[in-house]
Design a protein that fits this description.
The chain has 442 residues and is of the alpha+beta class. It folds into two domains: 109 residues, 3-layer Sandwich (Rieske Iron-sulfur Protein), CATH 2.102.10.10; 244 residues, Naphthalene 1,2-dioxygenase Alpha Subunit, Chain A, domain 1 (Alpha-Beta Complex). It is built from eleven helices and 22 strands. The strands form four sheets. Strands 13, 14, 15, 16, 17, 18, 19, 20 and 22 form a nine-stranded antiparallel beta sheet that branches. Helix 7 packs across helix 8. The longest helix is centred in the middle third of the chain and has 19 residues. The two termini are 34 Å apart.
């Protein structure tokens, strides 16, 4: 399939018939994958790390973003910056540790030394080079553009990209504000990380991450476990309502491909939704936090923050699951049919160790690679990936809740609709065809 054909045929939308279909080559074509890297991942804001991971001057961590080895650095000047982790001399990495604190980074190959602003400080020799060889700074570590919102730091490999603020848009910024409001001090990344791989196209997991339609069929074992676990408690009756969780919330396309599933699933939330299993001491702490939010933000906003579970996708590959725990999850494609997943748990800094333990248990037990949720989902994604390449069916149907609106990127629907995913795919399609730009207009 040539580029022109890809641009014309991968998405098929019929507003009159209310159908939304995706050509299945979008899930396995190498050519599509190469186009995605150039037209989406090289131009969109991509998550790098949280401010709390490098809180002090000199702190750093190394992270790979779309195959690029980067240093995320808290400089001695107090800035959060990012560099390509490659010596400007012969290309070797200048930082080999996953994280730490240092005044300099030194290449192990020939000993070139760089400071926390990426400036070349030493070439480990006094002879052979002109004294002013780096007068223009071309031998300093090459920087990557970094911007931050609400403690979340993103990189963009396109210097002409619109600002992160504009890329996120009002609805995503409001969502991130609701997350940061959970703490009276600041939100921090807790120790530990999930890192695993799935043999499927990354967009399968993007769709799945905020899909209210699959809860009953895929996670039946989890629902049965909860019903058994809470048998005899006052929570025992609420799990019968799980199938009707769409009574509150909805599925929202939030512009620029971002989307949200908001729902009232009664499994407790450390921020402000106590359940009996957590005990009276935790009830007091959760109640105090809920009262703080009510006093500061009003009843309606506090109820939204405390009661509503929120599964969101920030285009193209960042998932924030604000549910039983608060998880930041990056889904990175490594090939058309494989992805790697990295996830971290976010929590209020001032929260008690006991409540943090509950968060971490939820972080592991449902969304962890060996939890109740992720293995079920991974099995479905593997099945879908294998099947679509061996079946003559050309199109995937994503029409549930389809509306005849002019811009599907800002549509909304019921919690078990696919409207929000249609918003993601509409943005994806427009970027792949060059129909929209995420660049500053000069």
């Amino acid at each position: 399939m040539n580029t022109k054909a890809i641009q014309e045929s991968l998405i098929e939308v019929d507003k009159d018939c209310r159908t939304f279909r995706i050509n299945r080559e979008a899930y396995y074509s190498q050519e599509v994958f190469e186009m995605e890297k150039a037209l989406i991942f090289d131009k969109c804001w991509l998550y790098l790390g949280h401010r709390s991971e490098i809180p002090n001057k000199g702190d750093f961590l190394t992270r790979t973003v779309m195959g690029r080895n980067l240093i995320f650095q808290h400089s001695r000047k107090g800035e959060l910056v990012a560099f390509y982790n490659t010596c400007t001399h012969r290309g070797a990495a200048v930082c080999w540790d996953r994280k730490g604190n240092s005044k300099v980074h030194s290449c192990r190959y020939h000993g070139w030394v760089y400071d926390t602003e990426g400036k070349l400080k030493s070439m480990n020799t006094e002879t052979g080079y002109p004294e002013d060889i780096n007068a223009d700074g071309h031998l300093d570590l090459p920087r990557v553009r970094v911007e931050e919102y609400g403690g979340l730091n993103f990189v963009n490999f396109n210097d002409n990209a619109i600002s992160l603020y504009d890329f996120l848009g009002e609805q995503v910024r409001d969502l991130l504000d609701s997350i940061n409001a959970q703490s009276a001090e600041e939100m921090i990344i807790l120790p530990g990380e999930h890192a695993y791989s799935i043999n499927a196209n990354y967009k399968f997991l993007i769709e799945n991450s905020a899909d209210g339609y699959h809860l009953g069929p895929v996670h039946q074992t989890y629902l049965e476990f909860l019903a058994d676990k809470y048998s005899g408690t006052k929570e025992s009756g609420v799990f019968a309502k799980m199938a009707n969780f769409q009574e509150k919330g909805g599925a929202y396309a939030m512009g620029n491909g971002h989307f949200l599933l908001s729902s009232n699933v009664p499994t407790g939330r450390p921020v402000g939704y106590w359940i009996e299993e957590w005990g009276p001491d935790i009830k007091k702490e959760i109640g105090a936090n809920r009262q703080r939010l009510t006093d500061q933000l009003g009843q309606e906003r506090a109820d939204y923050i405390c009661d509503m579970q929120k599964n969101s996708v920030i285009f193209p590959n960042l998932v924030i699951n604000d549910i039983l725990a608060l998880t930041i999850r990056v889904i990175e494609p490594v090939s058309p049919i494989a992805m790697k997943v990295n996830a971290w748990c976010l929590a209020p800094k001032e929260e008690s160790d006991e409540l943090k333990e509950i968060r971490l248990d939820n972080f592991v037990s449902f969304l962890g690679p060996s939890g109740f949720g992720s293995p079920d989902d991974g099995s479905m994604l593997n099945s879908a990936q294998k099947s679509i390449t061996a079946c003559p069916t050309e199109w995937t149907e994503l029409s549930k809740g389809m509306q005849g609106v002019d811009d599907l990127r800002v549509a909304s629907g019921m919690t078990d609709d696919e409207t929000h995913m249609q918003g993601y795919w509409t943005q994806w399609d427009m970027l792949m065809r060059g129909a929209v730009s995420l660049e500053q207009q000069i």
